[in-house]
Amino acid sequence: MSGSDEPTAGAQQQAHERYEQQQKAIEQRADEIEHIILVMSGKGGVGKSTVAVNLAWALALGGESVGLLDADLHGPNTALMTGTQNTRLGMRDNLMQPAIAAHGLKVVSMAMLLDDRDTPTIWRGPLRANVLRQFIAEVDWGQLDYLIVDLPPGTGDEPLTIAQSFPGADGVIIVTTPQQVSQDDCRKAINFARQLELPVIGVIENMSGFVCPHCGKETAIFSQGGGEIMASEMGVPYLGALPLAPEIVSLCDSGRPLADQQAPQAVRDTFANVVGNINNQIVRQKS
Ligand SMILES: Nc1ncnc2c1ncn2[C@@H]1O[C@H](COP(=O)(O)OP(=O)(O)O)[C@@H](O)[C@H]1O
Ligand SMILES: [Mg+2]
Ligand SMILES: [Zn+2]
Questions:
Q1: Whose Cα sits closest to atom 12 in ligand 1?
Q2: Does 145 map to a domain?
Q3: What is the Å distance from ligand 2's center to 174 Cα?
Q4: Best CA proximity match to 127, nearest among 158, 89, 90, 96
Q5: What is the pLDDT of residue 121?
Q6: Residue nearest to atom 23 of ligand 1 (CA)
Q7: Helical spans, DSSP H, in 32-156
Q8: Does the residue 91 lie in any domain?
Q9: I need a surface site. Which of 124, 147, 161, 200 has the fewest CB within 10 A?
């Protein structure tokens, strides 16, 4: 009997030891990071990556040392958005070296491990969880003031893996569009954070209103104000709104920050206001 059982038990023991080692490495990395912020949304396509990338860049431009972890393994868009899509992760001392984007921002994304960006990553849950844990344990993040994590949409396995890896995170930022369907999913994301005892830093309403470049009139394409109402109903802070602006698409696609001089002043101002509110919220939570 024992002949067939023993190797299995041995392999299990080995796997367990590897997991424990990895857990230790994750805790060591987290110890060197002052603030960890997770960016979530109920749905995809609402601007979660746009917010994560630009929050990271805004902090880096303010002189902080910042890392950006792209935890969206199926849609690893932060590489393109930070202009690092042609970088491949190098190795030094057995650790992956993050790509360095403009303003010294350190970026790690699945896109930097793939040779062909059109090929989907088809992995089962446990394998995805392991890759995410490696992205923390086996990356040379170094000392960071902030690590911003761009989570995949929803409240599935990956947000859970990340939340469990960073129990001491400052909290989550929830990005929604003004439509009812997006808000309904965001309520789930807020409850997810609560169940895991992660503070909710606040809600951002993205794609809120469009100012016509021809006549200057504002149109609420996806309606407006729902994010603020939802935040107040759920008893979480509201961080502000970002307008729908075609320039945001071109800045994102060309890997440049919203703080870029070419971005419209209104976009720069509103985003700076959101970042200010996030900072205030983090300071308030710590005190
Ligand atoms: N406020 C906005 N105005 C115009 N386009 C936006 C805005 N926010 C995001 N986008 C664009 O919408 C698309 C989806 O945004 P993204 O950040 O990738 O969403 P998610 O990460 O939630 O799937 C991108 O092409 C992005 O450039
Ligand atoms: Mg995304
Ligand atoms: Zn018009």
A1: 47
A2: yes
A3: 13
A4: 158
A5: 72
A6: 45
A7: 48-61, 78-81, 125-137
A8: yes
A9: 124
